[in-house]
């Protein structure tokens, strides 16, 4: 329906394999579990969710200090998740259903148990020594500079056997690679090739703005933050000019394989994300602003408008509401009406310009789980509990049914099931036409049929940004009008006269309501019910395919 590449028009669904579906009863999700649920994700008919691609968080061999984000072999599958043959089967089965596969490459650092680091640390003369960032002690503290670890404390670890420090942006078990070393870079390009040749359609690139650090290792200047890492401006340990050249190389390699993509996890702000994506650079880069702001239509609107201004020509936004590192948005935004808000948020994410990424479980309005002290798995939770339980609450298993093990496992789940899994689960919601899941499903299929929603222009209609958002998406003859009421009171909005209300037909609403668009006396008036998300179109014809469900 569109001549744009799939990653510009599709909806991408993040799977955290550990918590998605367990096929062998060991309590941990695995690749065969993912295969068993592909029909739920997209069986080619509107009975299924309809996502176009899945991004799998790392399933490579790893000692698991950071749950797979510490890789000890880039070209294999951890036995916990299955085998390479399972991966090949997953690719075949997913492709058969039109689902693309995106892998999560953690190329900023390896595990300390990766053979490269084991060799590197073995002696100063080892040929792999320069694959990591080793430095002599300096000054009183000994640390080569003031850089901090994202996970707390200094980012330099003393290694007594060779009497030098190594740099780790995250855990001490995650030493950073030296991307200035041409051999490292070539090794990484081979990792891309290995998975591209096996059928991967794209990559999510972990900490993509961290690959290079200042060549002179200068101290970061202070910033007015509260905790260690936030108390510095990250101008020397991230976001270096050399990145652009590395992204060009990655993009050129991807382009030799056809319609393959990459999306960068940029830890910095929206301005940085916008700088790294676009033609010739990374195809996409996440903008995380939505994960950091409150339930305020004006805040969302401002973030969107600012980002549209920042993006280069041909750059596409890539907003995220939830992922495996942040509190789930149904919990963050919940208020008195978590389900209704989950629907409003979904309607926004799936109708804004750009490529939407969903995080497993958000389509059923899943909330954060409750983790007791002794159940904590995440190293961040172990370090900062209380008050911070870390990232386990957003990583609890997907509840498929109200039955034993929530249909996730026949064993003991690696993290506890959510206490509300008997009500909030896939099966129960599939049977309820008003559920969050049903709303996501309808939105995704509507988007698939609509050129305006997939790739049209975005035009905000500013009317009441402290209560609601209203905007248009336009492509050719098709215009879609999206109305989102963020709060519990009904709202009446007066819109531009030129919208001629007679043309509009409502095609989707999150409530069974009488909300409507009508005109008269030179005005166009839009009524939205409490917490309503609704979409109107000018293109309600048999030909457009928007006619009927
Ligand atoms: C990214 C991942 C996070 C991980 C970190 C270190 O931010 O999303 O889960 O802990 O990188 O690899």
Describe this structure in words.
The protein is of the alpha/beta class. The chain folds into three domains: 6-108 and 182-445, Glycosidases (TIM Barrel, Alpha-Beta Barrel), CATH 3.20.20; 115-167, Oligo-1,6-glucosidase, Domain 2 (Oligo-1,6-glucosidase, domain 2, Alpha-Beta Complex); 455-537, Immunoglobulin-like (Sandwich). It contains 16 helices and 18 strands. The strands form four sheets. A seven-stranded parallel β-sheet has the order 9-8-7-3-2-1-10. The chain has a five-stranded antiparallel β-sheet with strand order 11-12-13-18-15. A three-stranded antiparallel β-sheet has the order 4-6-5, with no helix packed on it. Strand 5 (156-159) and strand 6 form a beta hairpin. It is globular and about 80 Å long. The chain starts with 5 loop residues before the first helix and ends in a 12-residue tail after the last strand. The structure holds alpha-D-glucopyranose (GLC). Residues 66, 69, 106, 170, 206-207, 265, 324-325 line the site of alpha-D-glucopyranose.
């Amino acid at each position: 329906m569109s001549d744009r590449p799939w990653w510009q028009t599709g909806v991408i669904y993040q799977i955290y394999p550990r918590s998605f579906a367990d096929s062998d009863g060991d309590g941990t999700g695995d690749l065969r579990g993912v295969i068993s649920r592909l029909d739920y994700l997209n069986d080619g008919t509107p009975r299924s969710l309809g996502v176009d691609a899945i991004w799998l968080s790392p399933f490579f061999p790893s000692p698991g200090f950071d749950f797979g984000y510490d890789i000890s072999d880039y070209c294999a599958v951890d036995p916990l998740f299955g085998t390479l043959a399972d991966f090949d089967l997953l690719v075949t089965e997913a492709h058969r259903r039109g689902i693309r596969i995106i892998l999560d490459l953690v190329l900023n650092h390896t595990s300390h148990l990766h053979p490269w680091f084991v060799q590197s640390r073995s002696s100063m003369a080892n040929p792999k020594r320069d694959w990591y960032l080793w430095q002599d002690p300096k000054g009183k503290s000994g640390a080569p500079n003031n850089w901090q670890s994202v996970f707390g404390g200094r980012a330099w670890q003393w290694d007594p056997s060779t009497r030098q420090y190594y740099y780790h942006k995250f855990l001490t078990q995650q030493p950073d690679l030296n991307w200035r070393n041409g051999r490292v870079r070539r090794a990484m390009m081979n990792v891309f090739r290995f998975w591209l040749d096996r059928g991967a359609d794209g990559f999510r690139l972990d900490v993509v703005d961290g690959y290079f650090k200042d060549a002179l290792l200068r101290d970061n200047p202070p910033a007015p933050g509260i905790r260690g890492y936030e108390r510095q401006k990250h101008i020397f340990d991230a976001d270096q000019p050399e990145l652009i050249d590395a992204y060009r190389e990655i993009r050129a390699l991807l382009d030799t394989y056809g319609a393959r993509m990459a999306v960068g996890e940029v830890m910095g702000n929206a301005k940085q994300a916008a700088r790294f994506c676009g033609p010739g650079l990374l195809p996409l880069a996440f903008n995380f602003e939505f994960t950091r702001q409150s339930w305020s239509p004006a805040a969302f609107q401002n973030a969107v408008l600012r980002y549209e201004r920042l993006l280069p020509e041909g750059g596409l936004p890539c907003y995220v509401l939830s992922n495996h590192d942040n509190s789930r948005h149904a919990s963050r935004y919940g208020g008195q009406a978590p389900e209704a808000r989950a629907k409003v948020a979904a309607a926004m994410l799936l109708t804004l310009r750009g490529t939407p990424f969903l995080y497993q479980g958000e389509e059923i309005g899943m909330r954060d789980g409750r983790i007791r002290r002794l159940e904590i798995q995440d190293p961040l939770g172990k370090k900062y509990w209380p008050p911070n339980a870390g990232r386990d609450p957003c990583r609890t298993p997907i509840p498929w049914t109200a039955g034993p093990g929530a249909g996730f496992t026949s064993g003991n789940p690696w993290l506890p099931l959510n206490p509300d899994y008997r009500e909030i689960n896939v099966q129960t919601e599939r049977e309820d036409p008003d559920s969050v899941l049903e709303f996501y499903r309808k939105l995704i299929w509507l988007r698939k049929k609509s050129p305006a929603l997939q790739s049209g222009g975005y035009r905000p209609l500013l009317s009441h940004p402290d209560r609601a958002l209203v905007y248009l998406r336009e492509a050719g003859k098709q215009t879609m009008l999206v109305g989102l009421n963020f709060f519990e009171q009904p709202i009446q909005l007066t819109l531009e006269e030129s919208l001629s209300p007679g043309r509009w037909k409502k095609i989707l609403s999150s409530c069974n309501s009488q909300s409507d668009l009508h005109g008269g006396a030179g005005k166009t008036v839009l009524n939205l019910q409490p917490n309503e998300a609704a979409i109107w179109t000018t293109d309600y014809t048999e030909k457009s395919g928007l006619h009927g469900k």
